[in-house]
Amino acid sequence: MPMNRFLGFILFFLLLSLASSTYISDAIFEPHRSTGRSLLQNKKNCPVNFENQNYTIITSKCKGPKYAADLCCGAFKEFACPFAEQINDMSTNCADTMFSYINLYGKYPPGIFANLCKGDKYGLACDDVKSENVELKDSKTNGA
């Protein structure tokens, strides 16, 4: 009986660690074209100010003409994982906005990160990525 209880605790903590893992969904890499009913399908504005983010995390590591998957995907995850909750929310324009700025500053070929970065069935795991402080567009804190 004590062995069953021990295995139960191990299983509980294993499931807890899986449930608390952060992923970047593969859905963010898919193009989101507008259909004829766009009035009913407008996306909410993203709470993250992607215009003023530091893209050198990506542009300094992911360079062409031969884009190394390990460098590009590591840099992409380092940049995007702090925003995983926002960019995975398909009711907002966060993923589209983020990729627009990544492509603007990095001049990357279309779909490069979707083609290079492969995760598991949940998407790209963010567990091994350090989180940086990020600024939300509606943030009212200014250090005071």
Label the overall shape: globular
Could you report the average pLDDT, rounded to the nearest whole number?
Answer: 76
- The DSSP helix count reads 6
The residue fraction in helices comes out at 25-40%
Give the spatial strand order of the biggest sheet. 1-2
Q: What is the gyration radius calculated from CA atoms?
A: 18 Å
- Tell me the number of strands: 2
General description of the model:
By secondary structure, this protein is an all-alpha fold. The chain has a domain at 56-116. Helix content is 39%, strand content 3%. It contains six helices and two strands, in the order αβαααααβ. The chain has helices spanning 2-19, 56-59, 69-80, 84-87, 94-106, 112-116, and strands at 23-24, 124-125. The chain has a two-stranded antiparallel sheet with strand order 1-2. The N and C termini lie far apart (56 Å). The relative contact order is 0.21. Residues 1-21 form the signal peptide. This is GPI-anchored protein LLG1-like domain-containing protein. Keywords: Signal.
